[in-house]
Specification:
With 1035 residues, the chain is mainly α. It is built from 46 helices and no strands. Helix 5 packs parallel to helix 7, helix 15 runs parallel beside helix 17 and helix 22 packs across helix 25. Component of the Mediator complex.
Length: 1035
């Protein structure tokens, strides 16, 4: 027999029980026939239940042989006769189980734990125990609960740690076989049978339970998550659900369950997910309401999360939402510059994104998605008889044609499809497809040629990415080579076309563009040995003005540029650009430099002519030092004029030199000082108005000066207009201020930031009886109503900048309550999913670091939901709305993104295949010939289409896993997962559960060795035990 060959046992009683079971198994004695002999044996040779269970299980099969069925019948007899308890059997079985195997056993090393049999023994034993407990054959007394729970928890822990250790050793490869899965399933069934019985709830009355409950719950959860769920068992999740019921719930002193916040949140049911037209419309509006936030990886990550891999719907909705944003801009009569920005996104960025996704749209094609999208896009945004409807339609039709031209350039549509969509014959002109490399090669040899590319018609027909990449690469190359002369020419070109920078920023990060410029200006070397200083000052002025112009125009912070928090000249100048230095705080060098500049500007000869700014003045003063002294120079000049040292004409004549190109950027600091300077406290109002008249209306006809001057006015106009309006209100007699305000007004709206204009805010609030909270709610209702409509309806009018301003004015709490109220009311009306999508889009909309209002709303929402006590005090429907809103917001905050690096990287205009390959979306040789037919000046060949099969590819997997910053970290497992402690987990408690009852034996020490009694003549032991039993019990 497989279990023969046991060593002699030291305990006579144990050896007696072993001999009985062994001979009964040899003689094939049934359990029913063995009942009376065991009863007599228990009276003669009484021993512990743990010893009996160990002796009986010592007879299990060895070396992989199937166990004798009589073993399980005998186990059932022992349990039902109360010779041993469930805990005794489980502990004895655990001692001999493979789950106690150490790591070295896999290599054939000798182990102290006997490896016996196959997992089927444990599986059958667990199944037997579960059946006995379920049918009522076995029940647990209050004293047995402790031991049984102890044994069961040890099994759960041992199985979990054993399986986890196997996974570590196998480097994550599957380690479960069918037999092992059966054993783990049976163990789970046993745990549920014992712990799930209603009678087990009485364990809460035991004095040891409150202390041990957390450990029991932890082991139940670990086994469920890491074993049952790992093997996809049908029992997975049941043990987790059991831990949410008494007695496993934490209870207070009165025995009432303590429900934690997570349980409250989980009790709120989820609404169906709605991917509304309004949700993506809001998100794209936020991306384009200021500086473009249109990084490829960020956008694709968000879209993949939102549409969960449904790339066909993604492509259709992206195109529809882009047209919705453009239509909204026309309906709101936005500035031409903003409309141009949105149109560039539609005609340049969207086709490039569609080209990236084209291989992942199977079974559809990009052409089919575009055709489907235009069934929901209407060119008639206004009723035909309404004023302006024809003009809006004309603009939208032009944008549609430019979009089709760009799609043809990217091989996304054919002319036949375009004609089918537009219902008219279309003949697209053949335009060249630019590449960044081709453009950069030309511009490196002739920088001024870049201007022809910036005004090229194809800039709005699909070539913007290549031109943007060229701009960034040429700037980086010139800065790296310190070619300041060529860089000055390039900066003057970009200053003349400063509005094109928002198109460049659709493809480049601020650090890509500004970091090399800021570094060059900071490290500028002022060579005092050179013969002429005006050219160096001119070069510095052009580079500085372009840098400041971009920073002010788009509200870019030092963090976004990727520079250190201090020590950079450009941002030090931005921070103190309006601050003059008191004379007492000037250093000797600064005093000398200021005196030289003052003398050069205002000193006159015998004929009354100023000497001008000589090379000697500039020799002693580096450009950085001069621009830091400009506010002080203005202050001292105004003070001299006020005190009569200088006449107004002399003041204007001297400072007129600052209008020369090599000093023109100094007007930024000078005019900023005027804005900061009080109109009332110094009695120099007329002097300052004369200065403003001189500086704001330059007499130069030079195009270069006019372009530079216009950029300066764009920067200084908003604060200067507010200052002049304040002066006009307090001093109506100063008519000159009104004329200056009118002059500056066109420049006020040139900044492309997320800050709303006062006129927009007043208009939005006025539509809601002046109540900003009502304005928020009305806006949400309009968006939900539009999202719930069917057909190609024009979008509801929406301004994300105004929503941000309202958030800042109302505060995050009031905005959050307004959004929650709308979700609550629309849920009651059956539109909860649509309202939830709209509100989540508002809360999760992207923003720049300078805008904190939306982040504050998100933080407030998170804190509100975590404060479960306060949440429970709210009306149930309101609390549910907040919980649902929080869930969706947190889900969208886990968008897979490629982190934006804080330092500049060259922007490259890559082919679709190159982008796909870098994101891990293409085959190794995909895109090998991507540039074969895309050289500069060559017409695009629309016949070449990639044939790679990506029909089964999920785009989200290529973008990297989602990152959730809000979930708690997983507890780290110990290094040696198999070295399970043999200490009693309940050993430190008082085990005397009943003062008068029997003392339980929790020792796990087994019987050393195997009883080798097969050759002993002990058959007559049954004669002594059975006495006068019937003759049919014959061995």
């Amino acid at each position: 027999m497989p279990w023969l060959g046991s060593d002699q046992m030291a305990d006579p009683a144990a050896q007696r029980w072993h001999t009985v079971f062994q001979n009964a198994m040899l003689r094939r004695v049934t359990a029913a026939d063995l009942a009376i002999p065991l009863k007599q044996l228990s009276m003669e040779r009484s021993t512990s239940g743990a010893m009996i269970a160990s002796v009986l299980l010592d007879l299990r099969a060895r070396r992989g042989v199937v166990d004798d069925p009589l073993l399980f019948h005998y186990i059932q007899l022992v349990l039902e006769s109360s010779y041993a308890s469930t805990g005794d059997v489980l502990l004895a079985l655990l001692k001999q189980s493979r789950v106690m195997e150490k790591a070295g056993d896999a290599n054939g090393e000798e182990t102290s734990v006997r490896l016996t049999g196959m997992p089927t023994c444990e599986e059958r034993m667990f199944t037997l125990l579960a059946q006995l407990h379920l049918n009522g054959s076995l029940s647990l007394t209050s004293s047995e609960m402790h031991q049984t729970l102890n044994a069961l928890v040890r099994w759960l822990r041992a199985a979990h740690e054993h399986e986890y250790g196997k996974q570590l050793r196998s480097a994550g490869l599957p380690t479960l076989d069918p037999l092992t899965c059966g054993m783990y399933d049976a163990l789970g069934s046993l745990a549920l049978a014992i712990l799930g019985k209603h009678s087990f709830r009485s364990v809460a009355e035991q004095k040891w339970w409150q202390q041990r409950r957390p450990l029991v719950v932890q082991e139940m959860l670990s086994y469920d998550m890491h074993v049952l769920q790992c093997m996809q068992s049908q029992l997975s999740g049941r043990m987790q659900a059991l831990t949410k019921l008494p007695p496993f719930l934490e209870s207070d002193a009165d025995g009432r369950p303590v429900i934690n916040g997570q349980q409250i949140l989980e009790s709120v049911t989820e609404l169906p997910i709605a991917q509304t037209r309004a949700g993506l419309y809001i998100w794209l509006s936020a991306c384009l309401c200021g500086r473009p936030l249109t990084d490829d990886a960020t956008m694709l990550g968000y879209l993949q999360t939102r549409y969960n891999g449904d790339n066909q719907t993604l492509a259709v909705h992206l195109l529809v939402a882009s047209f919705d944003v453009l239509t909204n801009a026309h309906l709101r009569s936005d500035s031409p510059q903003r409309i141009k920005l949105i149109r560039s996104f539609l005609c340049n960025k969207v086709p490039s994104l569609l080209a990236i996704m084209a291989a992942f749209l199977a079974p559809m094609t990009a052409e089919q998605c575009i055709q489907m999208a235009f069934t929901d896009i209407s060119m008639d945004a206004l009723p035909p008889l309404e004023a302006g409807s024809a003009k809006v339609r004309e603009k939208l039709v032009e944008a549609r044609l430019a979009f089709f031209q760009a799609c043809a350039l990217h091989h996304l549509v054919s002319e036949a499809s375009i004609s089918s969509i537009t219902q008219e014959s279309v003949r697209l002109p053949k335009i060249p497809r630019f590449t960044k490399e081709g453009l950069a090669n030309q511009c490196n040899s002739n920088v001024s040629q870049l201007e022809s590319f910036l005004i090229h018609p194809s800039m709005m027909q699909g070539n913007a990415g290549a031109i943007a990449g060229c701009v960034v690469e040429v700037i980086n190359n010139l800065c790296m080579n310190k070619d300041s002369m060529s860089l000055k020419t390039l900066c003057n070109v970009l200053i003349r076309h400063i509005e094109e920078m928002e198109i460049v920023l659709q493809y480049a990060q601020p650090a890509d563009l500004l970091q090399p410029l800021c570094t060059l200006l900071n490290d500028w070397v002022h060579d005092q040995e050179q013969s002429e200083f005006t050219p160096a000052y001119e070069e510095f002025a052009s580079i500085l003005l372009l840098t400041l112009g971009i920073i002010y125009r788009y509200g870019i912070s030092q963090v976004e540029v990727g520079l250190a928090s201090n020590g950079n000249f450009v941002f030090e100048l931005v921070g103190d650009i309006s601050s003059s230095i008191p004379r007492s705080e000037l250093s000797e060098e600064q005093s000398a430099q200021l005196s030289k500049w003052t003398e050069g500007l205002f000193a006159t000869d015998e004929q009354g002519e100023t000497s001008g700014i000589s090379d000697e003045v500039m020799r002693q003063c580096p450009p950085q030092a001069f621009y830091k002294l400009v506010p002080t120079l203005f202050e001292q000049s105004a003070l001299a004029c006020k005190s009569g040292v200088l006449s107004v004409d002399a003041l204007k004549g001297g400072l007129e030199l600052l209008l020369e190109p090599f000093l023109l950027p100094s007007l930024v600091g000078g005019l900023a000082w005027v804005v900061k300077h009080s109109w009332e406290d110094h009695g120099d109002t007329d002097i300052l108005l004369h200065l403003l008249e001189k500086f704001l209306r330059p007499s130069s006809s030079s195009q270069e000066v006019q372009a530079m001057h216009s950029v300066i006015l764009d920067m200084i106009a908003p604060p200067l207009v507010r200052s002049l309006q304040e002066l006009s209100r307090k001093r109506p007699d100063k008519k000159a201020a009104i004329g200056l305000i009118e002059l500056l007004q066109p420049h006020v709206v040139q900044r492309q930031t997320m800050h709303a204009y006062a006129a927009e805010l007043h208009e939005w609030a006025a539509t809601s009886d002046g109540a900003l909270t009502r304005a928020v709610r009305n806006n949400v209702r309009d968006l939900v109503s539009w999202a719930s409509s069917v057909g190609p309806n024009p979008p509801t009018r929406y301004s994300h900048r105004t929503f941000l301003a309202v958030c800042q004015l109302l505060g995050q709490e009031r905005v959050l309550q307004a959004l929650a109220a709308e979700v609550q009311e629309h849920t009651a009306a059956g539109l909860g999913s649509q309202a939830l999508d709209v509100c989540v889009a508002l809360v999760c909309a992207p923003s720049t670091p300078a805008i904190t209002s939306i982040a504050n709303v998100r933080d407030s929402l998170r804190q509100t939901v975590l404060d479960t006590r306060s949440l429970l005090k709210k009306p149930a429907t309101r609390a549910e709305a907040l919980v649902r809103l929080s869930r969706r917001v947190e889900a969208q905050l886990t968008v897979p993104q490629i982190q934006q690096l804080p330092f500049a990287l060259p922007v490259q205009e890559q082919s679709t295949d190159q982008i796909m390959q870098e994101l891990g979306l293409a085959e190794p040789d995909a895109g090998h010939d991507a540039n074969a037919n895309t050289s500069l000046g060559q017409p695009s060949d629309m016949s070449q289409v990639s044939t790679a099969d990506f029909s089964n590819t999920d785009l989200s997997s290529a973008l990297g896993p989602a990152i959730d910053f809000n979930n708690p970290s997983v507890q780290k497992m110990p290094d040696d997962q198999n070295a399970m402690s043999t200490d009693d987990i309940f050993g430190d408690l008082d085990l005397s559960l009943d003062a008068g009852g029997p003392q339980l034996d929790f020792q796990q020490s087994g019987i050393p060795g195997d009883a080798n009694s097969s050759n002993q003549k002990d058959d007559d032991i049954f004669a002594d035990i059975m006495g006068d039993m019937n003759a049919d019990f014959d061995f």
